[in-house]
Amino acid sequence: MSAASWTSLQETAGPVSRETFERLVEFETVFQKWNRRINLAAQSTQDDVWHRHILDSAQLARIKPEAKRWVDLGSGGGFPGLVLAFLLAERDGASIELVESNRKKASFLQAVIGQFNLPAKVIARRIDDAYPLVSTPQIVTARALASLPVLLDLSAPWLMAGARGLFHKGRDYRAELAESAQRWSFDLVEHASTTDAYGVIVELSDLRQLS
Questions:
Q1: Mind listing the pLDDT tens digit for each residue in 150-176?
Q2: Domain range annotation of the chain
Q3: pLDDT (tens digit, 9 = 90+) per residue, 39-88?
Q4: Would you list the DSSP string of the chain?
Q5: How much is the pTM?
Q6: Which CATH architecture fits 3-209?
């Protein structure tokens, strides 16, 4: 990886040490090996993992640099959960829990956590079975998991308790927001994606169910 790649990471995620950058580069290689075996992400993105997945995930760290307790839903191939774990390793006392029910993907997540000694824990359960097992998070994340109305249903126990949601969304996100607003009240901040001209990170907080 070139110096430009390190620069792009810092522009996307905020200040990142050279060591963390090199660990993420090594993780990219590990991911590609596993992906050829158990299909962690679309093969069409195999040649651009750094931009399409790693940088896209890393931008969440810049949005909430002070947050230390995170949970990632449907972690799959580790985006954004594992990428955040690498970045959170630079924050004293920070950690992330990765909820993933697919056993093969959960095994991949656990292998990477062990290999790189990341501040992360895998919860190999369905999301609706994981509520009592997850520590009280400050931030809930999910990427390419479900529509926003479904995400709010899944993450409501944490968001209604004070957590904030950071969810990757595409060009149709306004329709998802409108549908969600029929059932929920929430505070919203929209963050333009730094990696996708049509993408956005929706930040949701103070979630309340409408009567």
A1: 999 999 999 999 999 999 999 899 999
A2: 3-209
A3: 786 665 566 789 889 999 999 999 999 999 999 999 999 999 999 999 99
A4: --HHHHHHHHHHHSS--HHHHHHHHHHHHHHHHHHHHH--S-GGGGGGHIIIIIIHHHHHHHH-TT--EEEEES-TTTTTHHHHHHHHTTSTT-EEEEE---HHHHHHHHHHHHHHT-SEEEE-S-HHHHGGGS---SEEEESSSS-HHHHHHHHHHHHTTT-EEEEEE-TTHHHHHHHHTTTEEEEEEEEE-SS-TT-EEEEEEEEEE--
A5: 0.95
A6: 3-Layer(aba) Sandwich (3.40)
Determine the length of the chain. 211
Report yes or no: 41 and 105 within 8 Å, Cβ to Cβ: no
